Every structure is written in C-alpha cells, then in structure tokens.
Amino acid sequence: xxxxxxxxxxxxxxxxxxxxxxxxxxxxxxxxxxxxxxxxxxxxxxxxxxxxxxxxxxxxxxxxxxxxxxxxxxx
Length: 75
Description:
single chain; globular
C-alpha cells in the first residue's frame, strides 16, 4: 500500500515539474504548489513506512516551502 503512495508522490512531483517546464504552469500557480505538497505528503507517508528519515525531512521541508508559497500567493 505504501509503495503505491510513494509512487504516487513521485508521479505528482514529475507531473508538476513537467507542466512547469512546458510552460503549462507557473511557479506562482497554486496548482503547481498543491501538486508538490501532495507529492511530498505521499513521500512522507512512504518514508515513515520505510523508516527513511532523510526522505521524511526533505519532503517535510519541501511541503513547508509549498505551503509558504501558497500563503504568499493568497496574500
């Protein structure tokens, strides 16, 4: 189950970066940051299942950056 969640997180990161690179999303787009936050949350869950704490920390920081960016966009 957690492997599927981990792969979903990786896919969300890839899709968000692909759409950004193709010019379909902006780095100031809420959707871009939402995709990154969801990807990070999935990889955090997978990291807990695997006791992969470096992965958990990196993705928690990544999600925090995404939340910060969305709050900045909203204001």
